[in-house]
Amino acid sequence: MSTTLEVRNLRTHFFTRAGVVKAVDGVSFTVGRGQVLGLVGESGSGKTVTGFSIIGLVDPPGRVVEGEILFHGRNLATANEEELRHLRGNRIAMIFQDPMMTLNPVLRVDTQMIETVLAHEKVSREEARQRSRDALGMVGIPSPDERLKSYPHQFSGGMRQRVAIAIALLHRPELIIADEPTTALDVTIQGQILAEVQKLAATTGTSLIWITHDLSVVAGLADEIAVMYAGRIVEGGEVGAVLDAPMHPYTVGLIGSVPSRNRRGEPLRQIPGMTPSLLKLPAGCAFRSRCPRADEACLVEPDLLELRPGRRARCFHPHLEGVGA
Amino acid sequence: MSATTETPLLELRGISRRFEKKLDFAGKIARFLGAPLREEVVHAVDDVTLGIRKGEVVGLVGESGCGKSTLGRVAAGIMPPSNGQVLWRGKDVTKLDGPASREARLRAQMIFQDPYASLNPRMRVEDIVGEAPLVHGMTTRAGFGPYVEEQIRRAGLDPAFKRRYPHQFSGGQRQRIGIARALAVKPEFIVCDEAVAALDVSIQAQILNLFMKLRQELDLTYLFISHDLSVVEHLSDRVVIMYLGRVVEQAPAEEIFARANHPYTVSLLASVPRIEARKRAFTTVKGEIPSPLNPPTGCHFHPRCPHAMPRCSQEVPKLREIAPGHLSACHLNG
Ligand SMILES: Nc1ncnc2c1ncn2[C@@H]1O[C@H](COP(=O)(O)OP(=O)(O)OP(=O)(O)O)[C@@H](O)[C@H]1O
Ligand SMILES: Nc1ncnc2c1ncn2[C@@H]1O[C@H](COP(=O)(O)OP(=O)(O)OP(=O)(O)O)[C@@H](O)[C@H]1O
Ligand code: SF4
Ligand code: SF4
Ligand SMILES: [Mg+2]
Ligand SMILES: [Mg+2]
Fold this sequence. Notes:
The complex is a heterodimer of chains A (325) and B (334).
Chain A: E1 3-16, E2 19-32, E3 36-41, H1 47-54, E4 62-71, E5 74-75, H2 81-87, E6 92-95, H3 109-120, H4 125-138, H5 144-147, H6 157-169, E7 175-179, H7 187-204, E8 207-211, H8 215-221, E9 224-229, E10 232-238, H9 239-244, H10 249-256, E11 305-308, E12 311-313
Parallel strand pairs in A: 3-8, 3-9, 6-7, 7-8
Antiparallel strand pairs in A: 1-2, 1-4, 4-5, 9-10, 10-12, 11-12
Helix pairs in contact in A: 3-4, 4-6
Chain B: E1 10-21, H1 25-32, E2 40-52, E3 57-61, H2 68-76, E4 83-88, E5 91-92, H3 99-107, E6 108-111, H4 125-135, H5 144-154, H6 171-183, E7 189-193, H7 201-218, E8 221-225, H8 229-235, E9 238-243, E10 246-252, H9 253-258, H10 263-271, E11 320-323, E12 326-328
Parallel strand pairs in B: 3-8, 3-9, 6-7, 7-8
Antiparallel strand pairs in B: 1-2, 1-4, 4-5, 9-10, 10-12, 11-12
Residues 248-249, 285, 287-288, 291, 293-294, 298, 302, 315-317 of chain A line the site of one iron/sulfur cluster.
């Protein structure tokens, strides 16, 4: 299997008045061709900033301060804006939680889609229109011809998101980074979109990074999962293996608190405390103040280690019971 | 068990709520000049009857725009219905006046999805929580401090924070402030409208546990509105499914998750991603959610229903009991 993206030791920091926010602090992962990586974690743990870093959309006071972002071997961290712009919307696409980040409110959907095609490829207008029609059909928008003549505000939220996804698909990108694209949608519409995306990865070899806080979506969609906490990946591996037998205490707590993993009507297992502020992270393991396994060893920052083949965790006292060798 | 014969704590009878979508200025001018424009009417809630027993947790589920919040507001007494009756222990609430009406307003409280939007940013926590009890004589100026502290502590917050403002709290903490405020007027009935939707899974678990603990301690009754079926399954005794303003199915929670009857409920349950699933093919309900401005005729679900028959587009199916306590509105049931 060939590698589409390899991120090595990515650090993206925000230099704010109150101090340096280490939003992403040493993140590494790879995504193979046609593979889906589920990126999950607490709110504020750095998922979106990781996605933005890959496509070069981090704005000041933020900056990628270290690391390599290898897209088919080419390091995007050192690429110039011109090259990045060419890659974006062509070979790499991003789908945002808010579709209006992609859509232009004053342009008809057909105009935006056709212009997007023409901006990157030398094809006729009619060919561009056909491509747009095909892309809308892929995301399940019925009678695309007539729909194409509408403005974004004439669509429902779910429909708008599907148009944004269709735009992301226009160039059959090799990599799609999707940031909570279905969180605001109804489950029936979410199901339709997930089915399309799954088909896309399987049939065209498109690689996906799917950012979400919903473990149930990742369970059904992803091949690999990476769990983030306070700017770092704390656990990673094959999705089934991680969800069935998590090693890191944060992952254990996260999965344990999902209602369907608890007996009906009984108190849910919960992680005590709150996410720490990235400005005032305690020394050592960032999960220390909430961790039931914490001891003196955890006053030092643990490394992300391969504890079993294909299973990585950043913890001095991982849960290894029930995890096969 | 005499549970079914007992007078419900709250009863909604034939509740409808319509909203008129007024024409804007350009629309009015166009109509004046002869354009065939009319003010459109949304039937947000359409003839809903529902009883909630003392101590019960009723989950209310349905897609965006189906009327959950509107029904919740009517149940909480903060929005009058266009038609129908709201009965509290058998008495029509809309007919109360004076002190009885004020008391009625306090005994039902609502907790919202976005705690930030529902908290006044310029008020300190102690005033947010303590204002209503003070106005309504549940505490005095002298007793104010201890009263507020008790409410804050009960919601799982440190009373030392009582002089802070909402923006100084995290999302989960703000939701606790909303809970403290609602409980401070000693309600019997709480409408939770997507109260945990905006929270992280780990914080969501903390808040759901708090709801369940308070239910026991204070003998509360809940109408729990959520689009998250796993949350509803976890804590509801009974589940009500709405589609475009109407109740299409209602049953005890275990029953509905084990033996859903209505085709809409069946497809909704099939669409829910499950953490137990692995690399599965996502199933889909075909089609769009129709606009409530122009709902399909007959059974609202017929354009998306895999079992639709000619009758479905002509005749509204009645909500009928198909098993004890299990109601469904579908022509497949005869
Ligand atoms: N422009 C900015 N200036 C300062 N800090 C920022 C900025 N953008 C993001 N951050 C910080 O970076 C951290 C990571 O944010 P990010 O948006 O990546 O989190 P996330 O994991 O996507 O969370 P969520 O699940 O809530 O979307 C947060 O602590 C956030 O406050
Ligand atoms: N104050 C209002 N004025 C006009 N229309 C309204 C008003 N409140 C609700 N509606 C309309 O009534 C319908 C039902 O809305 P409601 O908010 O009850 O739905 P909901 O089920 O709570 O949806 P969601 O899951 O998105 O919160 C929608 O079509 C909505 O646009
Ligand atoms: S390193 Fe220590 S504090 Fe951190 S997760 Fe592991 S046991 Fe808990
Ligand atoms: S009444 Fe007809 S259209 Fe409606 S749910 Fe039943 S079978 Fe489907
Ligand atoms: Mg984010
Ligand atoms: Mg609502």
